Amino acid sequence: MIKFLNYNVNGIRAAAKKGLFEFIEKENPDFVSLEEVKSFKDQAPLCDLKKEYSVIWHAADRKGYSGTAVFAKKQPLSVTNENFKDGMNTEGRLIALEYENFYLVSVYTPNAGDGLKRLDFRMEWDDCFREFICELDKKKPLIITGDLNVAHNEIDIKNPTTNHKSPGFTDEERSSFTKTLSLGFKDTFRTLYPDKVEYSWYSYRFKAKEKGIGWRIDYYLVSDRIMDRVKDSYIIQEPSCSDHQPIVLEIDI
Length: 253
Prior knowledge:
Distance between the termini: 7 Å
Largest sheet: 6 strands, mixed
Strand order of the largest sheet: 3-4-2-1-12-11
């Protein structure tokens, strides 16, 4: 069985001070995917991790913004991080690793932004992402993970009525996510636990986590044809290294 862990760390240097690397060491996953690393590789405190993991980094061009990273115990056959059209590769949002039996795609989907100012960009991103993963899926099954910045259904958000037009819960974003799944992918957590109410993101404001006011916007998706190999998919509610919570996929592949 292979253990995958994903975490939007909201700044890897800040998360490290809150126990991120001790948490990773305790969990001992085979793969770690991170979003919002907000740093270049040479700025991150990775000394201990590099002893056990290969480190693949995709920083944004803009300092202190966005960025993704994957730590892998097994060296990939290939790495791809720039398969989108011009203008969509500058924010460090994608890493795809190829292995013998699967691709691991780690992604940080753009937020629609305050006032939905980036909603059009977000929709264009989703279209490009679907094209990208469908091409990969023709070759090998996919494990897709990351902060996908959408609460798909009302069960995935504490207050659906008052957030209907909020970024991450608009009709456009939710329909786009439905379209992605319809192309041959499963939301592993919701497939295993259709009625379970748990969240992966809590605002830092208004003591949202203490009050249980959250969103489930971090996912593990897999190609339909390997869903039966998934042993578990879950959210870890501790530690609090970030405004997100880590998620785990356990799968035989």
